[in-house]
Amino acid sequence: MKSAKIVGLGKYLPPKILTNFDLEKIVDTSDEWITTRTGIKTRHVVEKNVSASVLAREASLVALKRAGLKPKDLDLIIVATITPDTQFPSTACYLQDYLKAKKACCFDISAACAGFVYALTCAWQFLKCGFYKNALVVGSEVLTSITDWEDRSTCVLFGDGAGAAVLVPSNRDGFLSAYLGGDGSKSELLILPGGGSRCPASLDTVKERLHYIRMKGNELFRIAVRIMVEAAQKALKRAGLGRKDIDLLVPHQANIRIITAVAKRLGLTEDKVYVNIERYGNMSSASSAVALCEAWEEGRIKKGDVVVLDAFGGGLVWGSSVIKWV
Ligand code: UT7
Prior knowledge:
Helix content is 34%, strand content 24%. The chain has eleven helices and 13 strands.
């Protein structure tokens, strides 16, 4: 097989919505600050005890239905998440059980906001080499479970949600190229410090609020713009294409100002860039997954279009995929 293609997309956003005005009641912030600095107006948040696998299941059922594939026929399930149900088993295992996808191999990918792009690239390679006949790739996050509701510099940014894609091998077009990268030397810029083997959970780690996201937003902002531009350019080059060939850029939705700066540097007009950050905030791996699904649902992606995914996040990690839609 030459490549792989996406044959079904799905998304799920938990029904409860938190507005900027709601946040004004929790921390010292304002709708005006959040809107102008980030572009976010609302975000969806889970009710208690709703985990990443639950959101993943809902998104997956939609994607599988649209793909015309039965869960029992699934070969591979990859879930990209930094908010897994448990450290182990993987969220992909819980999803496999929910779906009764008994013959599927399942694993999680931890690549923060670039997780969906990393996971798609893995699935594409499994299909291209003939190892599997189909794959379910999901980005699912309950970021509100690791959000510090006393930290106004981060708690206004995040939301919960999931997006899913079903992939099958393709003899022509589909995934044309990808470019993935990382820089572990800058891990401190965006991190959840507590609870892992480096800093096991204890009463002290809880007291010090180490189980919440910590972010140096300003530094990340500058790196994000440069890296996302580079990643898209490198992925396009690998596909033998240039920025003029882009029909739709689907960027990670962390900040409207990052998206605008990336689009400007790539020379793209507004109509070639998909944006939904105002409704969902930053959902890490789920952002690209939900954005791709919505862009397709809204008719922004047509057969033959060149779609570029472009994501960046904690790690640091980044990735861009170039897809010719079939
Ligand atoms: O998804 C993975 C990748 N993520 C990113 O790449 C995120 C990149 N970073 C960002 O999007 C932005 O840096 C933020 C949205 C996080 C912050 O925006 P900023 O324009 O960089 O603000 P800042 O951190 O420089 O803070 C400016 C001011 C500060 O006050 P002073 O020191 O100037 O008096 C903050 O204390 O805004 C203050 N501030 C707030 N004010 C009201 C920070 N958070 C808030 C808030 N409400 N929620």
